[in-house]
Amino acid sequence: NTIRFNLIIIIFLFISGKSFAQFDQKLEELGKWMDGSFSSQEQSKSDSDFFDIRLQMKRIWADRTDAIWIYVEQATAEAQDKPYRQRIYKVTKVDDNLFQSEVFVMNEPLRFAGAYKDELLLGSLTPDSLINRTGCAVFLSYTEGKYSGGTESKDCSSDLRGAKYATSDVIITSNSIISWDKGYDENDKQVWGAKKGGYIFKRIE
Question: What CATH number belongs to 2-203?
Answer without folding.
Answer: 2.40.128.590
